[in-house]
Amino acid sequence: MAINPPVDATTTEAWGKLQKHYDELQAQGIDLKKWFNDDPNRVDALSFDVGTLRFDFSKNLIKPETIKLFAELADEVHLAQRTKDMYSGVHINNTEDRAVLHTALRREASDEGKLIVDGQDVVKDVRETLDRMYAFADKVRSGEWKGVTGKEIETVVNIGIGGSDLGPVMVYEALKPYADAGIKARYISNIDPNDIAEKTRDLDPETTLFVVVSKTFGTLETLTNAREARAWLLEELQASGAIDGSDAQNAEAVEKHFVAVSTNLERVKEFGIDPKNAFGFWDWVGGRYSVDSAVGLTLAIVFGPARFEEFLAGFREVDKYFAQTPFEKNAVVIMGMINVWYRNFFKVASHAVLPYDQYLHRFPAYLQQLTMESNGKSVRWDGTPVTTETGEIFWGEPGTNGQHAFYQLIHQGTQLIPADFIAFANTPNPLKDGDQDMHELLLGNYFAQTKALAFGKTADEVRAEGTPEDIVPARVFTGNRPTTSIMGVRLDAFALGELISLYEMITFVEGTVWGLDSYDQWGVELGKQLAKQITPAISQDDDALAAQDASTRSLINFYREVREF
Q1: Mean pLDDT (whole number) for 326-353
Q2: Which of 33, 34, 347, 404 is catalytic?
Q3: Where a domain ends, among 304, 337, 372?
Q4: Do 444 and 485 reside in the same domain of the chain?
Q5: What is the CATH number of the domain that holds 78?
Q6: Domain of 534?
Q7: Average model confidence (pLDDT) for the chain?
Q8: pLDDT for 47-79, tens place per residue?
Q9: What is the pLDDT of residues 171-220, one digit of tens each?
Q10: How much is the average pLDDT of 264-276?
């Protein structure tokens, strides 16, 4: 089924209204303090509940009427139809001629038979893979699965890169309090040998299970690291006398200590992994959307199948809300449109994500791939140039650490940086410093930062504190720095699923407005291709070296001169 060409959002009536609205706000002067004073219902009008999450958009540079214009724009770019197409398996990833069905990864088993795409019962396929994952996870968790010397598994090591790493490691870190089987996880991704060296340095090979994650089982970094992990395993086991180094014992060791997440069973078998211990996923799910597929196998092992199902249920909550809620009342759509508002009308380039929860310390890095690989495009899905700015630079660190690092720029810098502040009312680690509840101390900072960014501090307020006049300008905070507050009940598997789906759908909304295929990633390919051409030139191939540009030749020559190993 051919998909319709994108609507040029800049030619729509809604876009013109938004431009006029923006111009009027600028002419009147954006003043959050005044807006709050003038509209006692502002917070209620701009707050929404989705699942276990509360959204407060009131400290953004919008008014309630802005939301109506956002809804009109969503209508005019046919967001509803695009959403229906995605959920039903239309090949909206048209540059690769693929469906985009990450939402199917979390559909309930009762939906089997209701989503047939390209002749496949998608939900049935998904649930069969999940059942195999869960059965394997239970074997490892119970101790039924043992290593080659009969010891139970204590550490699972995920070997993958990009979406085969960023999602699993983020979720593992986020849900650590719920690891209940005494099994830890580690994640190897970088082809830099320092990564695998450090991740394996103190491991016991007899109690380690490697999970190699590569759909094609051909990803350069992943397969290189997998081979090194195999060599490490066999060398360590032989050195300790656990195996004798014979082909038969080596093969048994690899089968007991390696499994795969891949669809290329032939390559899996060639590596030495039993194809029965390979778990597949599909070309209709991109890597950055795959953490809730077999890519999350380490998570199912560490946290258990029941908690993985809670994780999927959190995704499903937001998936349904996004698809079924009218645009004007749809917090997910509004949040995506707010990002468009800042990117295209305020010309803002970056976006901070600031979780006030240490367990979410990898969440901004995860969002970097999700958002920037998806919408870092300069052509639309029909191959025509984009008509406005696209993409945002996502970045961030947990509070309160970020406050002591880069918040200065957000508060008093010359560029506008919208920020999402994320926190939870409950913590799994309640502690007190004397009479002071530490979690409330953290939340005090969470609440204070958005207040300071919104309302600032005037020169008169600074003077009233007795500040010398020559210092007053340095202590003025202009305010009107936009933030979105997201607050949940607690960071558990369900809430984390909600958060991930939220940002997946925000990315989708933005991509729809901009006319992008948010599901391909051709921009990562050229560097990969050139690396294969250049690598031989580094140490041995002078002809390959001569074929390089002057800068590359110079750098390689310097490397040859100073390399010591």
Answers
A1: 98
A2: 404
A3: 304
A4: yes
A5: 3.40.50.10490
A6: 525-562
A7: 97
A8: 999 999 999 999 999 999 999 999 999 999 999
A9: 999 999 999 999 999 999 999 999 999 999 999 999 999 999 999 999 99
A10: 96
Kindly state whether residues 352 and 461 are assigned to the same domain: yes
Q: Within this chain, do residues 113 and 45 fall inside the same structural domain, yes or no?
A: no
Residues 53, 488 contacting (CB under 8 angstroms): yes
- The average pLDDT across 259-286 equals 96
Distance CA(130)–CA(464), nearest Å, equals: 63
What is the number of domains present in the chain? 3
* Number of Cβ atoms within 10 Å of the Cβ of 128: 14
What digits encode the pLDDT tens for the residues 145-178? 999 999 999 999 999 999 999 999 999 999 999 9
Active site residue: 221, 373, 392, 504, which one? 373
Q: Are residues 160 and 84 in the same domain?
A: no
pLDDT in tens, 458-469: 999 999 999 999
Q: Is position 96 within any domain?
A: no
**What tens digit of pLDDT does each residue of 397-439 get?**
999 999 999 999 999 999 999 999 999 999 999 999 999 999 9
Q: Indicate if 361 belongs to the active site.
A: no
Domain match, 292 and 151 both: yes
Claim to verify: residue 347 and residue 462 sit in the same structural domain: yes
**Of 516, 537, 553, the domain-final residue:** 516
* β-strand partners of 158: 187, 211
446 within domain boundaries:
yes
Clarify whether 21 is annotated catalytic: no
Q: Within 13 Å and on the Cβ side, how many CA atoms surround 462?
A: 16
Does residue 98 lie within any of the structural domains? no
CA distances from 35 to 21, 60, 70 (A): 15, 11, 19
Rounded to two decimals, the pTM is 0.96
Determine phi and psi for 75, rounding to 5 degrees: -65, -45
CA dihedral 433, 439, 442, 444 (to 10 degrees): -100
112 and 33 in one domain? Answer: no
Nearest alpha-carbon partner for 59 in 388, 487, 404, 504: 487
**Residue 102 known to be catalytic:** no
| pLDDT of amino acid 539 | 83
First to last CA, the chain: 56
Q: Is 536 in the same domain as 474? A: no
**Does the pLDDT at position 1 exceed 80?**
no
The strand pair at 258-261 and 208-213 is best described as parallel
CA distance 351 to 429: 30
User: Is residue 208 helix, strand or coil?
Assistant: strand
Report the 10 Å Cβ neighbour count for 99.
25
> Is 254 a domain residue?
yes
